[in-house]
Each structure stands twice: as C-alpha cells, then as structure tokens.
Write a structure and sequence with these properties.
The relative contact order is 0.13. The protein has eleven helices and twelve strands. It has one domain (7-327): TIM Barrel, CATH 3.20.20. α5 (172-182) links the parallel β8 and β9 (189-196). The radius of gyration is 20 Å and the shape is globular. The strands form two sheets. Strands 1-4-5-8-9-10-11-12 form an eight-stranded parallel beta barrel, surrounded by eight helices. Strands 6-7 form a two-stranded antiparallel ribbon. α3 runs parallel beside α4 (142-158) and α4 (142-158) crosses α5 (172-182). Helices cover 38% and strands 18% of the residues. The protein has helices spanning 14-20, 57-69, 99-110, 142-158, 172-182, 203-209, 234-246, 260-269, 280-291, 297-311, 321-327, and strands spanning 30-36, 43-46, 49-55, 74-79, 115-120, 134-135, 138-139, 162-165, 189-196, 250-254, 274-278, 315-318. With 328 residues, the chain is an alpha/beta fold. Bound molecules: ligand PBG. Residues 119, 121, 123, 131, 166-167, 202, 205-206, 223, 279-280 line the site of ligand PBG. Ligand PBG is lined by residues 119, 121, 123, 131, 166-167, 202, 205-206, 223, 279-280.
Length: 328
C-alpha cells in the first residue's frame, strides 16, 4: 500500500502540469524600461547590457509601436542627459522641452494607449550622480523632495500617466502627491520605489545613463545614505507602509531576485499592487553566462521571471520583457 499519495501524478505529463500550474507569465505582467538619448537615428547598444539600447526619439517611436504590437502596454522612461546640461540641482529636469518631456510626448503620439511611467530622480541630471542635491557633505532631503515634486508635475504636464520616484528621499511621496493635486493632476499615479536597496546590481544601468556617483569630498561614492541597507528586512515594511500612507498607488521592491523574501513580506502585509524591478546587473549576469555557453539563456530567464511572479509581483519591470514575450 506504500505510498498512497504520489505527488508525481500531478507531474506526469505537460497536460496535467499545465492544468495544475499555480502561476503563469503573460505580456501584461511587464513594465518595459526604455533608455532615451538625444540625436537622430541613434540606437546605441549599452556595453554592459547586451541587446539593450539607448534610443533617440525617432527610434523610440518605432520601439513603442513594436512593444504595443507584442502586447507590451507599459513603458518606464529613463533619459541620458548630455554632460553640459547637468548641474547639482538637476535644473534640466524641469525644462518643459527637456528630453524626458519630449520622450513622453513621443510615446503618447506614437501609441496613445501606451501607459507611460517616468523615472523621477536627480541622478541622470546631476553633475554628481546623486539622486538629490548635494551640499555640505550631505544629500539634502527636503530640498530634493521639493525638486522631485516639481519634476513630477513637469512629467504629468507632458502627459505621463504615472511618475516613478526612484530616489529614496524621506517624504517625497507626500510632496509629489500634494504637488500633483495642487496642479490638478489628480489622476496621475505614483509608483514608488519604496524598498530600494543600495545595491551593486545597478552598475550597468549607471553605464547606460552615465549616472554613477562621482568623487566628492566627504560624501560616500555610493548611495548608502539614502538607499536601504541590504541587511534589513523589517525596514522594507516600514518604508512601504509610509509610502502607501503618503499616497503611493503602486509600491516597488528593487532589485529583484536577491530580494524575493522582501517581495513576499510586502505581499503578505499590504493590498496594493507590487512592482518588482529585475535590475540591470541581474540582466547582465544572465547575458554574460549565456554568452559563455554556461547556462541556457531562455530557460534561466523564464525561471527567474516566474520566481519573481511567484514571490508576489503584480508588475515585473524587466529588460527581458521583449525576449520573454517573443517566446511566449
Ligand atoms: C536612479 C535609478 C537607478 C535605477 C533605476 N533608477 C540607479 C540607482 O539608483 O543608482 C537602477 C535600475 C537598474 O539597475 O536596472 N535613481
């Protein structure tokens, strides 16, 4: 009579496996990060992110149409700002004719129903590569939050559906929400990078935007005074709770794979949608190992994306979105 219960019955064919499968990946799970650069007919591959590109606005238009036809209906925009436009206060971020503002309009013109989210942080605009204003050896909190609020209004005015503050200043969600309300943008959403860790997995992204922190006297050359310490778990709940109370519509955990315990904690505690950002370093590692022939690219990609979904992600922000959807 041994054994009566055989779990392998539910694994014996693809038909039964697919019938009892608990999670599936679909194109609508994905939010696609897009890097935008100045110029015409520019499509530059990012050295540390194989098969990922910086696109000028004309290519951006083609790209979003392609994404839309693939069933990918949401983009997260990042801009690479020319050096001569960078300063400590990220002045260029508020330019109504700036690259981000033009990129938003380009996407909306090409694909009116595409959901447009925008990165809100100072680093691509900052001559120091920090997410806030630098003064007296500090990254200023409240002054930076004010600026992020103005930046958010500028993005909303250009047509963004959601702003996505990725900076980790305290109180910035409230500043942004209040500024949006005051300007009448009551339907512009906020996706908050609420549990964003000071991670070494962001390296390739900083290559893509040329946004790495530079040497400044008495300021750490990393983001550890505002992004979270990766030793901490409970703090992620506190950060997320505050962001929800301040008005975040969607919260985020970032990076992805190393932080799935945090994703599940947050899923268990809160009832708002959770975005998970599988970041540039995670993408680069899979690409590099696959290039060497050490792993099966597509299989590892799907396993990782499914792990993110299984952990509790409502939204998966991933550079693999197109690769994955093409194979679905
Ligand atoms: C900037 C920002 C970063 C990422 C998204 N927004 C980098 C950073 O915080 O230094 C990282 C994304 C990735 O690595 O893919 N605030």
């Amino acid at each position: 009579m041994f054994p009566l219960i055989r779990n392998r019955r539910l694994r014996s064919s693809e038909a039964i496996r697919s019938l009892v499968r608990e999670n599936i990946l679909t194109p609508s799970d994905f939010l696609v990060p897009v890097f935008v650069t100045e110029g015409k007919n520019v499509k530059e591959e990012i050295a540390s992110m194989p098969n990922y590109y910086r696109l000028s606005l004309d290519h951006l238009e083609k790209e979003v149409k392609e994404l839309w036809h693939m069933g990918l209906g949401a983009v997260l925009l990042f801009v690479k700002v020319p050096d001569h436009l960078k300063d400590n206060k990220g002045t260029e971020a508020l330019n109504p004719e700036g690259l981000m503002q033009r990129a938003i309009k380009t996407v909306k013109n090409a694909c009116p129903d595409m959901l447009v989210m925008t990165d809100v942080a100072l680093d691509p605009f900052s001559s120091y590569g920090h997410d806030g204003i630098v003064a007296n050896g500090q990254i200023l909190n409240d002054e930076s939050a004010d600026l992020l609020a103005q930046m958010s209004v500028s993005h909303a005015r250009a047509g963004a559906d959601f702003v996505a503050p990725s900076d980790m200043m305290d109180g910035r969600i409230l500043s942004i929400r209040e500024a949006l309300e005051a300007e009448g943008f009551i339907n512009t959403g906020i996706m908050s990078y609420s549990a964003k860790y000071a991670s070494s997995f962001y390296g390739p992204f900083r290559d893509a935007l040329d946004s790495a922190p530079v040497d400044i006297e008495n300021v750490p050359k990393n983001k550890s005074t505002y992004q979270m310490d990766y030793a901490n778990r409970l703090e992620a709940i506190r950060e997320t709770q505050l962001d929800i109370e301040e008005g975040a519509d969607i919260v985020m955990v970032k990076p992805g794979l190393c932080y799935l315990d945090i994703v599940r904690d947050i899923k268990n505690q809160f009832d708002v949608p959770i975005a998970v950002y599988q970041v540039s370093g995670e993408y680069a590692m899979v690409k590099a190992a696959a290039e060497k022939g050490w792993i099966d690219h597509d299989a590892v990609m799907f396993e990782q994306l499914m792990a993110i979904k299984r952990a509790g992600a409502t939204i998966i922000t991933s550079y693999f979105a197109k690769d994955a959807v093409r194979l679905m």
